């Protein structure tokens, strides 16, 4: 018997396993200022997220932002918190359970774990769990449809930073994006069609993606292009006209220019242009969270109505609906081809 540092005892001849680590952005442990301060400190200290010289940024972060923002963010989280805790974490657990149920019908030996880039359960703890289950082939699936350095790239950093501390590195595969996968586009289109069957078709549908600073785009980040292509593919799938859709970017932070047009500003302008009935969807999120349930469904609704809008409806994320779970399962099987599963 040989003992490897950082893992359980390994016995020669034991069966190696294939593991899937599914990740998302993360959530605070509770909707209070203390938890938000810890969460925001981790999130906003990530240099993939904030590309400002670390020394200067830490002065701003510790001296200003973490003194003010936690209370405000906690108040927003309290609005969406459920009996099961954070909506993002609750939905993520349901996604894991649903995907595991589908895949286990054919591949019962694949191991699954959930890890959040920030907060709990952490990527480090999820990887440790898979290591303890003798996983030697690892597929990492960040549930970000469109690649962005601040999300997918940061996830890669955290995974590899953890693996650097292991004596025995597993064979690794990493899914960068899936924004143009046919089944993903079909799932989005179906969710819109189903929503329209119950709520009628609006004048326009707004595709709102999380924003990033414009300089990230000019420095080579492909995220903007991937978002635009997602909208175009859904439009083509549904045979929608150009004038029926708008692509915007939300969640701007700070004073720098971000990707435009901004969601909030667009919603304030639409009523004056005769557009008073809209639906809004956020295809960049795989699960509903603060940015969708509070920012889009509540805050931006107010902007639109106050500007003269009459009908505003938010189309939920794909979450754990059947088509989404089948797509994620398909993506996992596709990327484990050639492995013994």
From the structure above, extract its key features.
341 residues; alpha/beta; Rossmann fold; 2 domains; four-stranded parallel β-sheet; 11 helices; disordered N terminus
Write up what this structure looks like.
This protein has 341 residues and is of the alpha/beta class. It contains 11 helices and 8 strands. The protein has a 4-stranded parallel β-sheet with strand order 2-1-3-4, with helices on both faces. A 4-stranded parallel β-sheet has the order 6-5-7-8, with helices on both faces. α1 (33-44) crosses α2 (54-80), α6 packs across α8 (223-238) and α6 (182-199) runs antiparallel to α11. It is globular and about 70 Å long. Residues 1-5 have low confidence and may be disordered.
The geometry reads as: globular
| CATH T-level topology of the largest domain | Rossmann fold
Instruction: Report, as a whole number of angstroms, the end-to-end distance.
Output: 25 Å
CATH architecture of the largest domain: 3-Layer(aba) Sandwich
Specify the biggest β-sheet. Answer: 4 strands, parallel
Largest sheet strand order: 2-1-3-4
- Count the DSSP helices: 11
Determine Rg (CA atoms, Å).
Answer: 21 Å
Percent helix range: 40-55%
**Classification by helices and strands:** alpha/beta
How many domains would you count in the coordinates?
Answer: 2
- Oligomeric category: single chain
Beta content: 15-25%
Q: What's the CATH class of the largest domain, please?
A: Alpha Beta
Average pLDDT value? 95
Listing every helix as H and every strand as E from the N terminus to the C terminus, the arrangement reads EHHHEHEHEHEHHEHEHEH
Unreliable stretches covering 5 or more consecutive residues: 1-5
Number of distinct beta strands: 8
């Amino acid at each position: 018997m040989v003992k490897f540092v950082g893992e359980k005892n390994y016995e020669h001849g034991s069966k190696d396993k294939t593991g899937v680590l599914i990740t998302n952005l993360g959530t605070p442990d509770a909707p209070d200022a203390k938890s938000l301060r810890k969460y925001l400190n981790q999130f906003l200290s990530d240099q993939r997220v904030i590309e400002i010289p670390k020394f200067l940024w830490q002065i701003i972060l510790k001296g200003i932002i973490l003194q003010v923002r936690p209370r405000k963010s906690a108040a927003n989280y309290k609005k969406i918190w459920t009996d099961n805790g954070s909506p993002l974490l609750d939905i993520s657990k349901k996604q894991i359970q649903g995907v595991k149920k589908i895949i286990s019908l054919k591949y019962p030996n694949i191991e699954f774990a959930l890890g959040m880039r920030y907060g709990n359960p952490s990527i480090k703890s999820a990887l440790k769990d898979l290591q303890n289950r003798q996983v030697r082939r690892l597929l990492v699936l960040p549930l970000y449809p469109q690649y962005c350095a601040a999300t997918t790239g940061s996830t890669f950093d955290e995974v590899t930073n953890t693996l650097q501390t292991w004596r025995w590195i597993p064979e690794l595969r990493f899914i960068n994006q899936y924004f143009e996968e046919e089944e993903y586009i079909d799932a989005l289109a179906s969710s819109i069609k189903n929503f329209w069957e119950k709520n009628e078709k609006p004048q326009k549908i707004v595709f709102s993606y999380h924003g990033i600073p414009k300089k990230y785009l000019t420095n080579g980040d492909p995220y903007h292009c991937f978002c635009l292509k997602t909208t175009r593919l859904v439009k083509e799938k549904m045979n929608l006209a150009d004038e029926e859709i708008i692509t915007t970017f939300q969640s701007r932070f700070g004073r720098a220019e971000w990707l435009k047009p901004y969601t909030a500003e667009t919603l304030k302008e639409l009523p004056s242009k005769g557009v008073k009935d809209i639906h809004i969807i956020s295809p960049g999120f795989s699960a509903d969270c603060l940015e969708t349930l509070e920012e889009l469904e509540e805050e931006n609704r107010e902007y639109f109505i106050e500007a003269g809008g009459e009908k505003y409806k938010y189309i939920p994320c794909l979450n754990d609906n059947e088509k989404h779970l089948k797509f994620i399962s398909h993506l996992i099987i596709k990327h484990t081809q050639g492995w013994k599963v």
